[in-house]
Amino acid sequence: MLEHTELFFKSIFIDNMVFATFLGMCSYLAVSKKVSTAVGLGAAVIFVLAVTVPLNWLLDQYLLRDGALSWLGPEYADYNLSFLSFILFIATIATMVQLVEIVVEKFSPALYNSLGIFLPLIAVNCAILGGSLFMQAREIPSLGLAFNYGLSSGIGWFLAILAIAAIREKIRYSNVPPPLRGLGITFIITGLMAIGFMSFGGMLTGGDEAAPVPEETAVQKKAEEEKMNLEEETEQTTVSYNAIEKE
Amino acid sequence: MALLSRKDSKLILDPLADNNPITIQVLGICSALAITAELKASIVMALSVLFVLGLGNVVISLMRNMIPSKIRIIVQLVVVATLVIIVDQVLKAFAYELSKTLAVFVGLIITNCIIMGRFEAFALGNGVWRSFLDGIGNAAGYGVILIIVGFFRELLGSGTLLGFPVLGNPIEKTGLYAMGYENNGFMLLSPMALIVVGILIWFQRSRNPALIEEN
């Protein structure tokens, strides 16, 4: 139970898909002009991640990883098909998205009207494939945890797009320097929000803090030396961060 | 430019500046930002995308009259996924350390929006040679931004370029460090990638006011 809660909060806040690993940035920037559309896309991402990550976990466990085929018999124990994981994962995602679209259209037209237009967009959203690839890279141990990971990463993504959409709706009334308007200021705000989210890094004590993304660990070690520098910056970001919470 | 007609060279040169995939079309940001803490990783990523987009555009363009439009997304995904697997295996064989640094981001080239975007917008409706040039041009535009961001982040963050110390030795206090200069380790953290790209966009749009957005 403890590992479930820990993974849940870790995936939402510390390893937030948008702010820590930049996954799904394209749709994050393109669909965040209005809160209502952002909510629709965010909900669709939660849904699809929660379905595809456990499915791909099963694929990885029983088909792809080194020795995964041993359930077929001892002569298959030496096979390592992990080079096929990209193509199988993306195929699962594309089919699932199509299937979900058909099922939702049939059984819940209301949900289809709110989610439907975003579903095709999602097949090529990096957050979805990224969720499966990180699940594989971090060696999530059980099906339940894989479901938890998909769900909570989706919620993290949802929070991020909701926050930026709310800020962008307000920022329309501010006097931003013309060359920064639109894309430029969105990038800088996202950067500041990411700095704010870094302060969640101290939230978990004990448990497995090892084995995050390789790139992140190397970076974070160097970061410790510059912690003073960082703390100055976080003060500035609390302003923008408070703004998120008000929304 | 006798090799290329004027129209063809525009295909390559346009995405480098005024129609840049990252700063103007807002495509392919996902995998672009996470790996730019080092210049070397940025260059390898740029080359991988160049390979995938150049060849992918050619393949899709060759098949453009055979693909039923209803299943074109799946066909495109299969083509990209195959090319990315090739890149991934080559990296693992010849640059294992680097493939560890890039980790899942090589795989994420599959869902890089630049690639699907160019397939949809260009390769499905144009000939092979023009599609190839378009792919090379857009991948180069993507690579230029990656290399600029990687250059500044590595230079200011760790004082090195491609792993070689260029500003002196921070421990023995030689070069610039003798004058009291310190590395800004904050540049190596992921949020700075976003801010550096934001500043690049600012710079580009100040130079070319035609690109400024309404709000």
Automatic annotation (TrEMBL), chain A:
InterPro entries (UniProt xref): NqrDE/RnfAE, NqrDE/RnfAE_oxidrdctase, NqrE
Principal subcellular localisation of the protein: membrane
Assigned keywords, A-Z: Cell inner membrane, Cell membrane, Ion transport, Membrane, NAD, Sodium, Sodium transport, Translocase, Transmembrane, Transmembrane helix, Transport, Ubiquinone
EC number: 7.2.1.1
Transmembrane segments: 12-31, 38-59, 79-104, 111-134, 146-167, 179-200
Start and end residues of each stretch annotated as Disordered: 224-247
Catalyzed reactions: a ubiquinone + n Na(+)(in) + NADH + H(+) = a ubiquinol + n Na(+)(out) + NAD(+)
Location in the cell: Cell membrane; Endomembrane system
Membrane topology listed for this record: Multi-pass membrane protein
Pfam families: Rnf-Nqr
Molecular function via GO: oxidoreductase activity, acting on NAD(P)H, quinone or similar compound as acceptor
Listed GO CC annotations: endomembrane system; Gram-negative-bacterium-type cell wall; plasma membrane
Record's keyword annotation contains Ion transport: yes
Biological process, per Gene Ontology: respiratory electron transport chain; sodium ion transport
Subunit structure: Composed of six subunits; NqrA, NqrB, NqrC, NqrD, NqrE and NqrF.
Recorded family membership: Belongs to the NqrDE/RnfAE family.
Described purpose of this protein according to its UniProt entry: NQR complex catalyzes the reduction of ubiquinone-1 to ubiquinol by two successive reactions, coupled with the transport of Na(+) ions from the cytoplasm to the periplasm. NqrA to NqrE are probably involved in the second step, the conversion of ubisemiquinone to ubiquinol.
Name the record gives this protein: Na(+)-translocating NADH-quinone reductase subunit E
Species, as recorded: Muriicola jejuensis
Gene: nqrE
TrEMBL record, chain B:
Keywords: Cell inner membrane, Cell membrane, Ion transport, Membrane, NAD, Sodium, Sodium transport, Translocase, Transmembrane, Transmembrane helix, Transport, Ubiquinone
GO biological process terms on file: sodium ion transport
Main location as per UniProt: membrane
GO MF annotation, one: oxidoreductase activity, acting on NAD(P)H, quinone or similar compound as acceptor
E.C. designation(s): 7.2.1.1
Entry annotated with the keyword Glycoprotein: no
One cellular component (GO) term of this entry: plasma membrane
TM region(s), chain numbering: 43-62, 74-95, 101-119, 131-152, 185-203
Domain of life of the source: Bacteria
Subcellular location field: Cell membrane; Endomembrane system
Pfam families assigned: Rnf-Nqr (PF02508)
Membrane-related topology note: Multi-pass membrane protein
Complex and partners: Composed of six subunits; NqrA, NqrB, NqrC, NqrD, NqrE and NqrF.
Family: Belongs to the NqrDE/RnfAE family.
Protein name stated in the entry: Na(+)-translocating NADH-quinone reductase subunit D
Organism: Muriicola jejuensis
